[in-house]
Here is the input.
Amino acid sequence: MRCLIGFFGLTRSLPLTAGAIGWAFLDPLRAAGFEVRAAGHFNLPETISNRRSGEDGIVPDRAEPALLGLDVSWVEPQTDDAIATEMQVLRGYTDSYGDGYRSLANLCHQLRSLDRLWSLLSLFEPAANDIVLLLRPDLLYLDRLEPARDLAPLLAGRA
Here is the structure.
């Protein structure tokens, strides 16, 4: 049994989250006999400024992905030019977040990262019976995966 784990987006808090990711996902999967392969695509903006999270001018650390012990990773500069076409379309609609389209730009960057991540996961030649988990590296996971309980519907073909 294989589990392919993909990390995407920003790594801005990996020193705080990497241990929880290991405890919540990697350790239980390996203990249950899964071969775990992990990849990550990470956006690297010049700085992170976000009113909601209280970040202002934080410079991301390019070396943080090493904390995850990935099989393969891709750290890419995050530029608005990379999502210009998508943003041109979105600007034709109301800015429902009222933040000058910044939240929508962040969503576009995240979707682009997911797309890049899938190209990395494809290097593992996913099989129909592989389980794929997509995780954000900047979230602190508080609940532990219990493979026998949580993956049973997937393994039995009921999901």
Residues 102-121 form the longest helix (20 residues).
